[in-house]
Amino acid sequence: MIIVYCIAQLSVNLFARLLTIWSRKPPIEEPFEVRIEESNLTPCLRSESPELPIGFKLSKEQLSMCKKLCQGRYGTVMEAQLSDQGTRQKVAVRVLKSSSGDKVLKASLEMVQTMAYLGQHLNLVNILGAVTKGLRNGELLVVVEYCQHGTLLNFLRRNKKNFIEQLSSNPLLTTSDDGPSCSTARPGGKVITYIDLLSWSKQIASAMSFLESYNVVHGHLALENVLLCDKKVVKIDKVGLLPAMTSGHSYVGVGEDFYPYKWLALECFSEREFTSKSDVWSFGVLLWELFTLGETPYAAMPNKDLYRKLDEGYRLDMPDNAFPEIHDMMRMCWYNRPYLRPTFQKLEEGLTAMLPKEITRVSEAD
């Protein structure tokens, strides 16, 4: 009887495993359609002619373009001066190409409206307004905060030789205009400490917790989409740049530019669904980027092999510059089942607890 029972149990387990495999969707191929969980902002995004809050509509006459900062697939980012009520402010302006098409234009409008209704957060690249007068001709100018020091990824790569393994309180630790740093700066770059890495991790988790509270999905969280400002404040960029964060909307991703493969959660490959929990997975990869000082994850692994390896249980190793608590946090972000992953609120709390108390007090005072 025992043998019969064991055989029956094995048969049931085998059948369940086969059923899981048969029902699984094939890994992402290009182009692909993606479903994104419904946002709490759905009602204001479904308008045929989206409205912006008072003060967000700007005119071209208020902008004085200075120089081109970068060129993208759908437009250009310009440095500019914004004149508003007698004051002038340095800003960045995203100029959408008129040839981008209706789908991209609609997505960009929804992004502007989403961020306008969300309100501002210290660790997001906040939208200051938009020029919508040329919409009929496919023209849209989005005015955002100017971040002086570019991407955090490039900053880390430029200054990785100046990394100091400093975590505990130290007489050399000072607070300057650039934020907590070491007073014995090495020539040729900015000093980076463990405290900086933890502080940046906590700031990013704080911004993502804010988005999570509104059920807003970022969708492509990676270190290259985090910008660095004065006082070592970091801001997450490109929130909602991909079309629509509401159920029923879909978009086509061509190539790997829309969603970087190596930051995707397992369910993004298999189920093609993007949620706050898939953002948590991406945050784990971002932590790995931070504590490797800007290395590329899975650098030696071809994209075509990544899903299979992750599904088999492969995960990134602990970076040399990290410590076990941080690697444990990364691995929690990479649980196969999304519901087992922590919330961004829990991640923020955990990172805050790792920061020295004097740094936490300085941050709160700022």
Automatic annotation (TrEMBL):
SUPFAM superfamilies: Protein kinase-like (PK-like). InterPro entries: Kinase-like_dom_sf (IPR011009), Prot_kinase_dom (IPR000719), RTK (IPR050122), Ser-Thr/Tyr_kinase_cat_dom (IPR001245). It holds the Pfam family PK_Tyr_Ser-Thr. Residues 63-355 form the Protein kinase domain. CDD domains: PTKc. It comes from the Eukaryota. GO terms for biological process: cell surface receptor protein tyrosine kinase signaling pathway. One of its GO terms (cellular component) is plasma membrane. Keywords: Magnesium, Metal-binding. GO terms for molecular function: ATP binding; metal ion binding; transmembrane receptor protein tyrosine kinase activity. Mg(2+) binds at N225. This is Protein kinase domain-containing protein. It comes from Anopheles sinensis.
